[in-house]
Design a protein that fits this description.
heterodimer, A: alpha+beta, Beta-Lactamase, 3 helices, 44% helix, B: 507 residues, alpha/beta, globular
């Protein structure tokens, strides 16, 4: 069973690393895939364009799309390890991180 | 325009320092001597070697210069037939059987350059100059949408009045147009840009508005010819500013870029090699090759002696060969044949692996609105040489071309999903090379073709289109790839939603 508090704390911990945002985003998705099996990728949003920036480069089809900030969004494929509540907690944590770091 | 004169504007356009980081020991990636050597060394290639190269292309591996040079030196007609078949097979593996359609929109023919082959050139006094207002852009867009198009490529001459700010404003204006059709609205979903090379800062302005692909054609990779047709005192006279245009676009974060050459200015074999070197250098420096390659042929243009008298004009037979060699050399890239070419030639080269084309095309500035007005007054919407860059070879309607392709078993696609789903840059390169993107092409082609049939198709096109869609749905059902995860289930729900009248559903 995945611990919500633990995983959200670890996402915040990754964000403190002194690395470019795309590398931190990449590390966050690696953690999520390792711990929960979640596959996904982040995009930068420019008008209609969602440009890939980090995450699973081989994932062709991810059915769920969420805009997380004015500039970033995520595509992901949920699985049975993650219930809707946990997914929402994870997304809110990343959303908060992105809002704080948007201007980097 | 913050500059006091066109001269002052021209003087600040080129920023050589933005190119320096891409040069190797001060040299660009076009080494003419090496290209000529490759072409010379690969004369009379062994058929077995050619077949090995074909196998490499079929494995979706980009060819090396000596391999492309070998293909260009094939003289055995039977071997060419094998290459034509392989070209189509490469296209099928990477992009399936769909052909993507787009409409060009010429926004301005004001131009400070003086290119010997072009009707827009500054010294051509017979050209009627015009730059469209944003309202006129939206009128043109409305006509294009009413044909059924979802993609545009916008084209501009190089001039301070059509600078990056104007280009960005026109793109916003196009994306804002919504045209009622049946019980919903239709719009342009992807705007690609063909414009003069920009600085990194100007590319960022276009990135902000969400462009699709940025396209710059080098015209010719042969430096002496480039110098001969582009006067040295013009912006376009600077070979390297143009050669690295797409490197700067990539640096600005535009990760879908498109290359091309104007065939007929110099030896077509050399130009194919130049395009290959361009693709290789983009891969080397960014890990991402060209999203598409274009290969327009020199066509008659108003007031251009060269456009009708060039000694390097490419025959129809050689044109098919050069398209085939490009298809085999850069297997992952999209390939665009336009309505410059006659219907017959388009049929030929779509048959060796082109992936995109246009129809219902008007390339006069304001041409769509004028053609519509002419039809309203029961006149023919004919081409006007004094308002366009060159003359078109095929002015058939979108509906006619869609119907013809459907009769050949090819599905028209208006898909714009990739760049809205993060399948861009190095991600889409990987998916193309792995023959995965084509699976999505197939699904999105069906969804957008369904839209077209329901909203715009004539009864005759709809009849043949329904048969094609049924065959495509059957093929999708039988393809094991679509049974992984919930892909097929998701697609079937989406198809049902489109059938029920929802629009712009994609995956």
């Amino acid at each position: 069973m995945v611990n919500v508090t633990s995983i959200c704390d670890r996402l915040r911990q990754i964000n403190t690393a002194n690395e470019p945002l795309t590398q931190r985003l990449s590390a966050m998705l690696e953690l999520l895939q390792r711990e929960t099996g979640l596959r996904g990728y982040f995009c930068q949003i420019w008008g209609k364009r969602w440009s890939y920036v980090a995450g699973d480069i081989t994932l062709a089809f991810a059915p769920v799309r969420r805009q997380l900030s004015p500039r970033y969004g995520i595509f992901y494929e949920q699985n049975s390890n993650i219930d809707d509540k946990l997914m929402e907690e994870i997304l809110q944590t990343i959303k908060q991180i992105l809002m704080e770091t948007e201007n980097e | 325009m913050p500059y006091q004169s066109i001269k002052a504007w021209k003087e600040q356009v080129i920023k050589p320092e933005e190119n320096e980081k891409y040069l190797v020991n001060g040299n660009d990636f076009i080494d003419e001597e090496t290209i000529f050597q490759h072409l010379q060394n690969q004369k009379n290639p062994d058929p077995q070697y050619i077949r090995e190269i074909i196998q490499k292309s079929l494995a979706i591996e980009r060819l090396e210069p000596q391999e492309t040079a070998a293909l260009l030196n094939v003289s055995d007609e039977d071997l060419w037939q094998e290459m034509y078949q392989a070209g189509l097979e490469v296209k099928r593996r990477v992009y399936d059987n769909r052909i993507v359609f787009f409409a060009p929109l010429y926004c301005s023919n004001l131009c400070v350059n003086n290119c010997a082959y072009c009707g827009f050139r500054n010294e051509n006094r017979s050209e009627k100059r015009r730059i469209l207002s944003l309202e006129e852009i939206q009128q043109e867009t409305t006509v294009v949408i009413n044909e059924g198009h979802k993609r545009m490529i916008v084209v501009y001459g190089e001039h301070p009045q059509s600078d990056a700010d104007y280009i960005a404003a026109t793109i916003r204006a196009i994306y804002d147009v919504r045209v009622p059709v049946n019980s919903h609205y239709s719009s342009i979903r992807r705007v690609n840009v063909n414009a003069a090379p920009l600085s990194v800062a100007d590319y960022q302005k276009l990135k902000e508005v969400g462009i699709g692909t940025f396209q710059v054609f080098q015209e010719t990779y042969h430096k002496p010819t480039y110098a001969a047709v582009h006067p040295v005192n013009t912006i376009k006279g600077n070979f390297q500013w143009r050669l690295y245009a797409l490197h700067r676009a990539m640096e600005a974060g535009i990760d879908d870029v498109a290359i091309g050459a104007l065939f007929g200015l110099y030896d077509w074999r050399f130009e194919v090699m130049g395009l290959l070197y361009h693709a290789i250098d983009l891969e080397r420096q960014f890990g991402i090759g060209p999203h598409t390659i274009s290969f327009p042929r020199l066509m008659p243009a108003s007031g251009s002696w060269l456009s009708t008298h060039s000694r390097w004009k490419v025959s129809d037979a050689d044109f098919k060969k050069l398209v085939t060699v490009l298809r085999l050399s850069v297997p992952y890239t999209g390939m665009i044949v336009t309505a410059r070419e006659s219907a017959e030639i388009r049929r030929e080269v779509i048959g060796v692996g082109c992936t995109q084309t246009d129809a219902s095309t008007r390339i006069g500035v304001g041409g769509y609105t004028e053609a519509l007005q002419a039809l309203t007054h029961l006149q023919h919407g004919e081409q006007d040489e004094t308002k366009q860059q060159f003359m078109l070879g095929d002015t058939r309607s979108l509906d006619e071309v869609v119907r013809e392709l459907a009769q050949r078993g090819m599905i028209t696609s208006f898909c714009t999903a990739g760049y809205r789903c993060g399948r861009t840059g190095d991600k889409i390169m990987g998916l193309l090379k792995g023959c995965v993107e084509g699976k999505f092409c197939k699904l999105n082609a069906v969804l957008t073709f369904r839209e077209y049939l329901d909203d715009y198709a004539s009864p005759a096109t709809r009849a043949i289109g329904e048969q094609l869609i049924a065959a495509e749905l059957d093929a999708i059902e039988r393809e094991p790839f679509f049974h992984k995860g919930k892909l097929l289930e998701n697609f079937e729900k989406m198809y049902q939603r489109v059938t029920n009248g929802e629009r712009d559903i994609y995956l």
